[in-house]
What we know:
Number of strands: 3
Bound molecules: protoporphyrin IX containing FE
Amino acid sequence: MSYLRSWFSFDTTTSLPTATAQSSSIPGSPAIDEGDDDGSDIAGEDDTPPAFPGLSSAQRAAPSTPSIPVILTDSALMPPPPPVPGLAARRPGVQKTATSSFSLLAPMTTTRRPYKSLRRERVALAPGIGPLDWASLKSSGEDLRENAWTAINGKVYNITPYLPFHPGGDKELMRVAGRDGTKLFSLTHAWVKADFMLDACLVGFLVSEPAA
Ligand code: HEM
């Protein structure tokens, strides 16, 4: 009983009326035995439980008025991000903000053409030709790197298609690639009619470069 009395009488502002009326104890001091309990108290023994909260606790030092819990709103818990410039004010590329020197915006080169003067119109490809045809040709295994020209007797030929058909082999034929092959051709087989054999490969006529 003394325990309950000291418990209720601790906080004088919020304590129950019946408890304050019955108790004059001071927190932390021995409770007064009024002799109305079960008679188990023994004179000279202090059965007062430790005061709660403790004498040196922060809870005791706090104001006795119960604090009202504050419910934080979402914006109070996580403030909104800083304002960003409007769409009209935005420019493609890296944007420096107060909090970051980088931007997740796409690079300028992928968002707009840099200069109006460089704009070109696309032309329609030939019927049956599309980007996928070029992709399939690239992956077909055909060697697309070679495009060898030579000049025989003043005529320039693209000898690339003939390389697999040359009786002397493609390596010998490639010896005249990129230069005037008239001399070597004539020394090897002057009787061969290159003019007839390569007519479909004629690119143009050899002219001497104007002196700079
Ligand atoms: C550029 C145009 C050329 C064409 C149209 C051409 C065409 C031919 C032809 C038709 C033959 C067979 C001749 C025959 O059986 O009598 C041949 C053979 C031969 N060509 Fe060419 N050729 C060319 C260039 C060259 C060059 C630059 C070389 C390199 C040196 C060369 C080396 C050979 C050789 C060694 C053979 C003899 C193959 C054999 O003994 O069967 N050809 N060529």
